[in-house]
Design brief:
This protein has 242 residues and is an alpha/beta fold. The chain has 9 helices and 7 strands; from the N terminus they run ααβαβαββαβααβααβ. Strand 1, helix 3 and strand 2 form a beta-alpha-beta unit. The longest helix has 17 residues.
């Protein structure tokens, strides 16, 4: 969660359904990629935001959060985690220094994502792992993406090719947020028609508790299901440095 979302969503006691369900997804991905837990494993989360994933990542190793926004880093530190301001576009990570890099909904914010992926490859140790998620379906790029400072949404082919070009070997990739896809895609298509100039407008807002709970139950049920659909609002997976 970035600082802008934190300020908007912290108005109510209920945690936003998307962030809550995504932690189930991230937990499943971590257990798949890292079946053996190792407290000495060095993990960083690029674009950690306010640090809501850091407690989960910390179960799999020693974790540090990196983010471009000082306000977000201050909140992550307040939760007791190691965190620092860092910009992957202008800075380098230490070469061959990390077992795991987590990059959840970050690459779309980076203008030169191909260069960022090459820097990630260089920072990973041999057999190091990149965990990732990105927004999917390029034609769905909308005022919501502009408000979130996205440069793009990804097709599956595009993210696979960019991982390969960086030197990474893809191990698994799946769509996520598939069950809610028709309704959200329709809503954003209508908004694009109403707003033809594409003026930035975020869909991330506090929701009434009963709606938030209902949407969470749907997304959590999908996340726990072993049946994966060939479409969705996000793509997630992991890749390895061979």
């Amino acid at each position: 969660m970035d600082y802008r979302d934190f300020k908007k969503l912290n108005q109510t006691g209920a945690e936003h359904f998307w962030y809550k369900a995504r932690r189930i997804l991230i937990n499943d991905l971590l257990n798949l990629a890292l079946p053996v837990r190792d407290p000495n494993r060095k993990i960083i989360e690029l674009g950690c935001g306010t640090g809501i994933q850091l407690p989960l990542l910390a179960q799999f190793g020693t974790v540090e959060g990196l983010d471009i926004a000082p306000e977000s880093i201050a909140l992550a530190k307040r939760s007791g985690f190691s965190a620092r301001v860092f910009n992957i576009e202008t800075e380098l990570l230490e070469k061959d220094s990390l077992e795991v890099i987590a990059c959840f909904d970050v690459l779309e914010h980076i203008k030169d994502d191909a260069l960022a992926l090459k820097k990630i490859f260089e920072a990973l140790k041999p057999n190091g792992i990149l965990l990732f998620s990105v927004p999917a379906v390029p034609w769905l790029f909308s005022p919501h993406d502009k408000a979130a400072s996205h440069y793009r949404r990804y097709s599956q082919k595009e993210i696979i090719n960019k991982l390969k070009a960086a030197g990474l070997t893809l191990k698994t990739i799946n769509y996520w947020n598939s069950w809610l896809f028709p309704a959200i895609a329709l809503m954003r298509t209508i908004k694009k028609i109403i707003n033809p100039r594409g003026t930035a407008s975020s869909d991330t807002k506090p929701l009434p508790n009963f709606i938030n709970r209902g949407l969470y139950q749907i997304l959590a049920a999908e996340t726990k299901s072993e049946f994966k659909l060939p479409w969705g609002l996000s793509l997630c997976g992991y890749a390895v440095k061979k």
